[in-house]
Amino acid sequence: MTIEPTGAGTAGLVDRVKNILLTPQAEWDKIAAEPADLNKLYLGYVLPLAALAAVCGFIGMSVLGVSGFGITYRVPLLAGLVGAVLQVGMALAGVYIMAMITNALAPNFGSTPDPMQAHKLSAYGSTAGFLAGVFAIIPALAALGIVGLYSLVLIFIGLPRLMKTPEDKRIGYFATIVVVDIVVMVVISVVLGAVRSAAGMGVPGPF
Questions:
Q1: Contact, 125 vs 158, CB < 8 A?
Q2: Secondary structure (DSSP) of 117-171
Q3: Among residues 84, 80, 44, which one has the least CA distance to residue 62?
Q4: What is the band of 196 on the pLDDT scale with cuts at 50, 70, 90?
Q5: Buried b (16+ CB within 10 A) or exposed e, 144-169
């Protein structure tokens, strides 16, 4: 069955999520052959998953709160909402930036530059990371979000299928993408932290 989640409704998105997590090799092959529509990719796939993670974090921190020693701390609702919006914005920016980095580095690792394929790799490869944010709905389980590292495996599997990366270049390409992306995300996090401080949101953030 052909799956077109970027233009489909919830059912298509759910099918894509399930397939990319459970059968990544076969799903990446399908994705590689699909036409890419950036608006649908980001608004129909990345945004819903990023929003899901942000909503779960908001519920966990601002509604349920963190309890310890008989005390429950909740992030103020307004600050929590602003933090959730910033989290979604950072998620979208992060996927886009990783795609740009992936595409720019491609020639250095014998791969084929292709902006559309790079965006698909970044968006669908981030699936596990987004879903891991669901654990934040119960602060005590937030540490389980480490399962989001499975996104690294998804991206590693997708590189030769979408960017035509030679096997002998795949590890180097993958490692470089991860390192550069981490540096960029740290810079963005610092900037957003400064924005929070300037806005008087002296509360723990979602990043």
A1: yes
A2: HHHHHHHHHTHHHHHHGGGGGSGGGGGGGGGGGHHHHHHHHHHHHHS---HHHHH
A3: 80
A4: low
A5: ebeebebbeebbbbbbbbbbebeeeb
pLDDT tens digits, one per residue of 115-158 = 999 999 999 999 999 999 999 888 788 788 889 899 999 999 99
Side chain identity, residue 179: V
Give dist(CA 151, CA 153) in Å, integer.
5
Here the tokens at position 57 are 């974090």
Closest to 59 in 3D by CA, of 123, 144, 141, 127: 141
Q: Which amino acid is at 78?
A: L
**Residue 149 is which amino acid?**
L
Domain boundaries, given as residue ranges, for the chain? 10-198
How confident is the model over 37-54, as a mean pLDDT? 94
